[in-house]
Amino acid sequence: ESAKTVQPRTAVYDSSMARDNSAQLLLLSELTTAIDQHHLELYYQLQVDLTAMEAVGVEALLRWNHPVRGLIEPDSFLPMAERTGLIRPLLDFVLTQTTTQHLEWRREGIDLALSINVSTRNLLDTTLVERVRRVLDAGMDPRMLTIEITETSSMTNPPLAIETLAELRRLGVSLAIDDYGTGYSSLAYLQRLPVQQLKIDKTFVLDMMTAPAHRVIVRSTIDLARTLGLTITAEGVEDLDTLMELKALCCNYAQGYYVGRPVPAEEIPASVSKLNAELKECTDTR
Ligand code: C2E
Ligand code: MG
Ligand code: MG
Ligand code: MG
């Protein structure tokens, strides 16, 4: 058991990799060294409180600055990292990097809650809670940290997931279900998890102003989540009309290209000021 949970920094070849072509294998060996070579970077995407109409948080999103291929998005390398166990050092990188950044912004007077993504393998890793506790010890207020998991990862091993989530909750961090609506779980199942937030997947939000079925799904999800005492974030908000509609539907938070694209950390302070000024203007004039 314990031998199995030790995940070496070097990737191990396993049978599931038979699917991978040689290009993927090359990418994998490069990813193994990318952390040490500082080729991985976190981008941050702003989140808006729709009641206060101001920026209140960021979600950290991993990027790989590949020396030859340029910027690589997470969907192109995270599945491979997940299959090989590299996802563990990646999470440690994310935890250290983002909590340090959060504290740095605080010192600059910028108070933004922080959301990070945790994969299925990360969630089922019995060392997760201890590793989160360790980074919080550096001085971050646990209430300012949200850990996002997907419906699918919560359903892979429900008893272990529930136990781990409860322990994370005891640390004082907040828990969110990401991409809600894309899995097969019901709110009846999800409300048994010790989570506080629901993020509606962008596929429903992107076209909610033109697709009546999606608008209905978004509206009823917001209503149900509120009834269950969960706060709700809409992902994929790409225009002002959608943002104002979500506000009218009493959605708590919005995230998306209209609010801000994911950007490197150094762009965040200026983005916050610019966004808050724009939001103030649009609430004054509407
Ligand atoms: P996610 O957690 O659901 O993150 C939101 C994704 O939607 C991001 O894609 C973001 O760039 C994109 N997005 C945000 N606003 C909009 C919008 O208005 N329109 C559209 N079309 N897209 C929008 P990204 O950065 O490519 O990340 C994809 C996924 O990779 C994430 O989905 C998350 O599941 C995973 N991921 C990213 N960073 C990490 C990480 O550090 N650890 C883990 N385990 N997973 C991560
Ligand atoms: Mg997320
Ligand atoms: Mg999502
Ligand atoms: Mg996603």
From TrEMBL:
Instruction: Identify the domain of life.
Output: Bacteria
Identify the stretch annotated as signal peptide in this record.
none
Q: Which residues form the EAL domain?
A: 24-276
Question: Can you tell me which residues the record assigns to a coiled coil?
Answer: none
Tell me the protein's name.
Bifunctional diguanylate cyclase/phosphodiesterase
This protein's species is: Rhodococcus sovatensis
